[in-house]
């Protein structure tokens, strides 16, 4: 129970205040324990941070990949749009995890850069496989014109990354959804047969 409360408080505080701006004592105080109690569960601040960062990345990956389950009946266009929309749903439903993932993907603490990059590469591989399968299917069905798959996947992942930043720029759901729809239509018009 205490371990989970520590992770929840740490995720929120690291996301809001940054790694350097968050003290272990602050996390402990929010949970209602003394700072030394943290060491019963985590080796140090870095260990606690990497635990919550990895869990946030895993939650994001699982959430986006759940989309692929039972999507065989949907078309390629709907499935690719669904990936972008699923990412948007994750941001709305899991704001703390979203904030920590985005903040540290863009601005990792220098001493954790390699570890965070490793976690990101794992996520990138999972998304590459998922998106690549839809691109191949699209070419097989004739809805995406024949071309190399990797440039398509890279372009789509860059659309996802751009939308990630856009989500945190705009508090208006309407503005964000307009941008999501416009960028997807532009992407789709560029790749379809």
What does this molecule look like?
The protein has 193 residues and is mainly α. It has a single domain (46-191), classed as Orthogonal Bundle (Tetracycline Repressor, domain 2). Helix content is 75%, strand content 0%. It contains 8 helices and no strands. It has helices at residues 2-17, 24-31, 45-65, 76-93, 95-106, 113-141, 149-169, 173-191. α1 crosses α5 and α3 crosses α5. The N and C termini lie far apart (54 Å). 24% of the residues are buried.
Task: Report the CATH C-level class.
Answer: Mainly Alpha
| Structural class estimated from helices and strands | mainly alpha
The CATH homologous superfamily name equals: Tetracycline Repressor, domain 2
SSE topology string: HHHHHHHH
Q: Helical amount among residues, as a percent range?
A: over 70%
How many domains, in number, for the residues? 1
Strand content: under 5%
> What is the CATH architecture annotation?
Orthogonal Bundle
Radius of gyration, CA atoms, in whole angstroms: 19 Å
Keywords:
single chain, 193 residues, mainly alpha, Tetracycline Repressor, domain 2, elongated
Short structural description:
The chain contains 8 helices and no strands.
Give the topology, please.
Layout: H1 2-17, H2 24-31, H3 45-65, H4 76-93, H5 95-106, H6 113-141, H7 149-169, H8 173-191
Helix pairs in contact: 1-2, 1-3, 1-5, 3-4, 3-5, 3-6, 4-5, 4-6, 4-7, 6-7, 7-8
